[in-house]
Specification:
Layout lengths: L11 E5 L4 H12 L3 E6 L2 H13 L4 E5 L5 H15 L4 E4 L14 H29 L3 E6 L12 H21 L4 E6 L3 E2 L32 E2 L1 H14 L3 E2 L6 H16 L5
């Protein structure tokens, strides 16, 4: 596992969605800790800015344009990373997109796009990197970016909720499966973060454009504070060092989480005897 105060220095990290937001903050934070960082994104100018920041902090870096919804591109990313650095120790499956509106207004293209990036992007990362990480026997850590929307469903975010719930369940199982290999797993579940995810449509493939246009429901107003990506990255890097599964960045998440599990408990407690 990648644990301990000096665990990140000298390691190799791959960060998808590294062109902005949480991905950029993770890439720069890991570089600050002494990791060599591979930045992946479809946003090439943003990716170049992140790479410049990585190199300014000292470690070597690499940028590879990657659409995580395409397994071939993620496998090519892994090939480049292993060819350049010989190993990958920290894999951050971070790329994510969102659409707003009720499920009754969702289009097939909406479903394809979000599942392709948010869920298949994580699966593709595991398929492309894990076998080689395990074969090298050096341990490591996987970070999958989910959301508080993967633990508490919010109205108007149905497709996003679906993908993030799946990432949480995947991560919980992955942590058990990878324990014998010395590879830790963290699932990142933030509430509001000051990123450009609300502008995700800027990178939406033309073939998956929503011909119906933006839903009338508009964007969802999130509860709680809006944290900076740097704060979220700091908390995530601490979780990598400590080998923590859940990365809950907002204390105010505790109240709605308790309400959810109390409702589940009551569904059992109040059930008539059979």
């Amino acid at each position: 596992m990648v644990t301990g105060a000096s665990s990140i220095a000298g390691r190799v990290a791959v960060v998808t969605g590294g062109g902005s937001g949480i991905g950029r903050a993770l890439a720069l934070g890991l570089a600050r800790e002494g990791a060599q960082v591979v930045v992946a994104d479809v946003d090439e100018p943003g990716m170049a800015e992140t790479l410049a920041g990585v190199r300014a902090r000292g470690p070597e870096g690499l940028a590879v344009r990657t659409d995580v919804a395409d397994l071939a591109q993620v496998r090519a990313l892994a090939d480049r990373a292993f060819a350049r650095f010989g190993a990958v120790h920290i894999l951050c499956n971070n790329a994510g997109v969102v659409v707003h509106g009720g499920l009754e207004t969702a289009t097939y293209q909406d479903w394809q796009w979000l599942i392709g990036v948010n869920l298949w992007g994580v699966v593709h990362g595991l398929l492309a990197f894990l076998p080689r990480m395990i074969a090298r026997g050096q341990g490591g850590h996987v970070v999958n970016t989910a959301s508080m929307a993967g633990l508490i469903a919010s109205q108007g975010l149905g497709i996003y909720n679906t993908t993030k719930y799946a990432v949480v369940g995947l991560s919980e199982t992955l942590a058990k499966d990878l324990r014998p290999h010395g590879i830790g797993v963290s699932v990142l579940c933030p509430m509001g973060v000051a990123t450009r995810i609300r502008e995700a449509d800027r990178n939406r493939p033309a073939a998956l454009r929503n011909e119906a246009g933006a839903p009338e429901a508009g964007e969802v107003t999130l509860i709680g504070r809006t944290l900076s990506p740097d704060k979220v990255a700091e908390r995530t890097i601490r979780a990598i060092r400590a080998g923590e599964l859940y990365v809950i960045t907002h204390d105010e998440a505790l109240v709605p989480l308790r309400r959810r599990f109390q409702r589940i408990e009551q569904a059992i407690v109040k059930r008539p005897p059979e």
